[in-house]
Amino acid sequence: MSIADKRAHIYHQMVSRLGGDPNAVDRMTDDNLFEMIRLYDDLFLDGQLLVADPKIRTRFGNFGFSGQYGPFAEYGKEVDSSGISGHTLIDDQHHTVLISRPIFTSLFKECHRSEYVNGIACRSQLECLQLTVEHELCHLILNIWSQELYSAGRGHGQPFQALSSHLFGHTHYQHWLGRCLGDDPDTHIRSVRATVHPGDVIHIYNNKNRSRDQFRVANIAERVTGTNLDNGQIENHSLIDVILPNETS
Ligand SMILES: [Zn+2]
Predict the structure, then answer these.
(1) d(CA 249, ligand 1 centre) in Å
(2) Do 159 and 38 lie in a common domain?
(3) What is the mean pLDDT of residues 97-121?
(4) Ligand 1 mean position, distance from CA 90 (Å)
């Protein structure tokens, strides 16, 4: 079975728990989430995750949903401010993956394009949740089987990216939930570089409050710098957050 086939198999199992509606993640229980993780373990890891350590079976009881919006992604006391969807929280006692329910249940209400998670297009809340669980599983796998690499990689370093690419075919380690992109991330970034210039007034997706703000561009390089015309602040944003004319509907 290909990666896509395995992912689709899990999707079909899980969508039945949501009454057939992939945009009804609000109905999903912590037990359902644990069930999804077991399916991932069976199909992608030959069930090795749950037998890797006798304690892990009970540790998995700590997977669940939180009622909070991000941003939060924590490893021990380290804070990774880039994560808004879910986080892997690891301490001496247990592994915990918490998924922000409000973020997932807000997706695809107004978005009629795609959300991208780990470089892969998602067209429903459930697909976005699966891709996020895959990302969190990579954190967990590295932490269980290679504490050294996990620490060296500080979360999303080369070992993480190699694992997530090999196991799940991820092409990015970021997600842009709520962004609702018109194109895949790489195409989007190329279009931004080709069409946006200093002095332009554009729209930008503001991650902080999930708004779409007017923005005057001062400079564009790895990030876009300029003035947010809605609040008067000098800001810089990822090129992913630049809203192109084909995304204004
Ligand atoms: Zn992460």
Answers:
(1) 31
(2) yes
(3) 89
(4) 12
